[in-house]
Amino acid sequence: MNKKDILATAGMPAQAPSYPKGPYRFVNREYLIITYQTDAAAIRAALPEPLKPAPGNLIAYEFIKMPDSSGFGDYQESGVVIPCLFGKQPVNFTCMMFLNDEPPLTGGREIWGFPKKYGEPELKVVRDTLTGTLKYDDEIVALGTMQYKPENLMQPNPDHAKMRDPNEIAKRLGKTQVNLKLIPGVDGKMSIAQLVAYNMQVEEIKGAWSGHARLHLVPHVNAPVADFPVRKIIGGSHFIADITLPYGRVIHDYLK
């Protein structure tokens, strides 16, 4: 392989990269997002500077099913997202994610710095309940539930109505997302230490529902989602969308 060949590869291994070059398109990507209030101290401890906590002490706990992902295949994902501020700009910080497929795990970490680890998430419908679960090393660490596609809420809630508005969902998906990308060099010292930002490109919202939800988190040393205790559930949002994940940009470099 000459230099040109090497620089043209998508990633490692060079003879059969774990993932192709992007951008990456997702068809019928399905979300269950449960928004809740947690402790301010837990959020402050998790946010890397210069990110700052947003008002409200909110966490968005996500279960995501991706049945048709270009280059990545069919897989599921679950994890913790923290609404916060970069300067005065509202952004979302991806704190931790768990998934069950090697190409998006490797590609997500190497390209965008997604904090991904291997786990066993699952989003499915169990009779009348939309159910999201996350297992790590065979132990359940998260259980989220929401009524399946509620059409008429007995007690209308403005938060719930906002969560099912397709325009609001598109804005939410297109909001700037931020990851802490950390990659050590061969000497063990940090070679890349960056805040990386990206914006999803929303093509179509195919369905959206919202309603009451519940979330149970179990403490686990290697999947510490329960470090953000559930103090008050705001509500659940269930939607299906076609989106594209483009490449990102560096917004803060800790080595400069």
Overview of the structural elements:
The structure is a single chain. Strand 8 (129-136) and strand 9 form a beta hairpin. The longest helix is centred in the middle third of the chain and has 11 residues, at 102-112. It contains 5 helices and 15 strands. The strands form 2 sheets. Strands 1, 2, 3, 4, 5, 6, 10, 11, 12, 14 and 15 form an 11-stranded mixed sheet that branches. A 4-stranded antiparallel sheet has the order 7-8-9-13, with no helix packed on it. With 256 residues, the protein is an alpha+beta fold.
Q: How many H/I helices? A: 5
Shape: globular
Oligomer: single chain
- Please tell me how large the radius of gyration is: 18 Å
| Straight-line N-to-C gap | 33 Å
Low-confidence stretches: none
Helix share, percent: 10-25%
Largest β-sheet summary: 11 strands, mixed
- Total number of β-strand segments? 15
Would you list the SSEs in sequence order as H and E? Answer: HEHEEEEHEEEEHHEEEEEE
Helix/strand/pairing category? alpha+beta
The overall pLDDT average reads: 95
Portion in strands: over 45%
